[in-house]
Amino acid sequence: MEIIILSFCAYLIGSIPFGLIFTKFFLKKDVRKIGSGNIGATNVLRTGNKILALLTLIFDIGKGYLVVKISFIFFPDLTYLIGLICFIGHIFPVWLKFNGGKGVAVYVGIILALSFKLALVFGVTWLIVLFLFKYSSLSSILASLSLIIYNLFFNDNFQNIFLILFFLIIIYTHKQNILRIKDKKETKIKF
Hints:
It is a single chain. The chain has about 190 residues and is mainly α. It has two domains: about 1-110, no CATH class; about 115-190, no CATH class. It has ten helices and no strands. The longest helix has 25 residues, at about 50-75.
C-alpha cells in the first residue's frame, strides 16, 4: 500500500506543469501555443521572459529533487523507482492529457538528489556540448549518456539500470529534435 501511495504522490508532484502555470499567471499566455508547444523551461524562454524560464527550470528541478530526497529519507529502497515515477509524471501529466515536458530538468533534480558528482558530470557535459554545438536537445541527450558511462566506472550496476531507463526515455522525448538535428533544422541556442 505504501508503494502505491508514494508512487501516486510522486506522479502528481512530477505532473505539476510549472511552465504552463507561470506563463498563464504572469503573461496570460499558453506556453503550449508558443514555439515547440512544450511546457519546459526552454520553451518558456521563447516567450521572451528569462525570469519565467529560470523559475520554470528551478521549480522543475526542485520537484525531482524534493521527491527523491523525501523518498531517500523515509523509503530508501524505493528511491530510484519514486524518482522514475516523478520523471514520468512530468512527461505524461494527467492534467494535460498526458502531453507534458521532455523531463530533463526533473531528471537533473533527481540526479542532484542522488549524487552531487553525477549532477556535476551532467552539468559539465551539458555545457561543453552546448558550447560546441549550440543545441540544447543534443546537450541533454549526451549529458544523460555521459552519466551511464561515468557510472560504469565509478558506481554500482543497479543505479546504471535506472540511468539507462532515464536515458532511453530522454531519447524518446527528444525524437523530433533528433530528426531536426539530422535535417539541420533544429533551433540553436544563441549566447
